[in-house]
Amino acid sequence: MSAQRHHLSVGEAARLLQARKLSPVELLEDFLARIEAVDARVHSYLLVTADSARASARQAEADIMAGRWRGPLHGIPYGVKDNYYTRGVRTCAGSRLLLDFVPDYDAAVIERLRDAGAILLGKLNTWEYGTGTGAVHFDLPFEPARNPWNLDHFTGGSSTGAGAAVAAGTAMFALGSDTGGSVRLPAAACGLQGMKPTYGRVSRHGILPNCYTLDVPGPLTWTVEDSAIALRAMAGHDARDPGSVDAPVPDYLAGIERGVRGLRIGIVRDLGTEGERVDAANWQGIEDMARVLNAQGATLVDVCLPATVTDYRQASSVINWTESLSIHEQDFMMRAADMGQALRDKMMNGFLTRAVDYLAAQRRRRELASATDAVLRSVDALVLPCAFHTAPPYADPDRVVAYTTDTACPPFNMSGHPAMAVCTGFDATGLPTNAQIVGRWFDEATVFQVARAYERDTSWRAQRPKL
Hints:
By secondary structure, the chain is α/β, with parallel strands linked by helices. The chain has one domain: Alpha-Beta Complex (Amidase signature (AS) enzymes), CATH 3.90.1300.10. 40% of the residues lie in helices and 12% in strands. The protein has an 11-stranded mixed sheet, with helices on both faces. Helix 5 (108-115) links the parallel strand 2 (77-81) and strand 3 (119-124).
């Protein structure tokens, strides 16, 4: 097995594959060997689809050798959070209730990636139903995913396996879903680039719903280029998703190397008293990002969000609890004893929420979205904290919950703006630090442009976990 291959970026591997200097079959076998070597400790996968992946790799090799290259994902192995439907392959979302569920169709995103030539390695670990309260009770049918930077530490949730897989090198990129941070938080914990696109940019058809009005699928990748490649293939209108928006999808790679000279970038340094909870190492990473962007010619200006993060979080929690119960009420009423405690607790929160509270939360959401957009329209992008903390140890359950709740993720689920978690280095113990870059509606391209400018002038992508 080549250590270099399973730690290639998508972009690096794509260029080798297109030039026929790398075989899709050899690349896949390296990833299957990597899974065999480390995943008994990392637990990134719930199910590995080795046979179908091998068949896809052979077909990709034949196509590329015949000159039928489909683009930069052709022959690239990836994993998907196990709340995405996969035709003929169990989709259990980490739950006892769905251990026998085998969908008869693929999620829209799986269809798009198959058309792009990507190779599905298997289904990745997740909190039950892709949701939860932030607590990990070790009461699900599968061992929780472990953080490759320190196996005793949390991966972030709920796309736990997606974060672990890309960091550990058991998938070249991974798909997660983000309702209140569930792409960005695992990316932050595991030292990745995690993109939550604009609400409506990517179809949710065939993804087990968590919260209709907040759910957004997104990629977790090692580099910004990889994220741009993945999102370009994932994005686009789909009439099967009523929340899908018919908006043109740009070539995100076209301007990714333009740099930030002339851009006006807002930095949110004042989070009120909540800012006191941000780890010093994370604040240091954000200030380092500001310094790098300023040195490259961007104008950095201090801005504030129109409300406290707590204000956004309280309204989003009411929406999340209520909509989740509306989706899963029958399961809860009939088989609550088979659910894990975190999911049961969340369903009970939904039961205790009044209709008037849900309506008030949705009204507040509209106010916050409009006010947040006004801030975004005053700048080209925002820089601010993502997760306030580095990944905590599983042995400290209070810190595990705090990792999930102490974040600046909910504002941009509530407003719908694209937001990306970016690795900013490592703390004194070797755990990744993070920041968040936010753009205007449907302007993921500028988010990638800013993130790439920072990534290009830093060395963090050269460091990998030692497993």
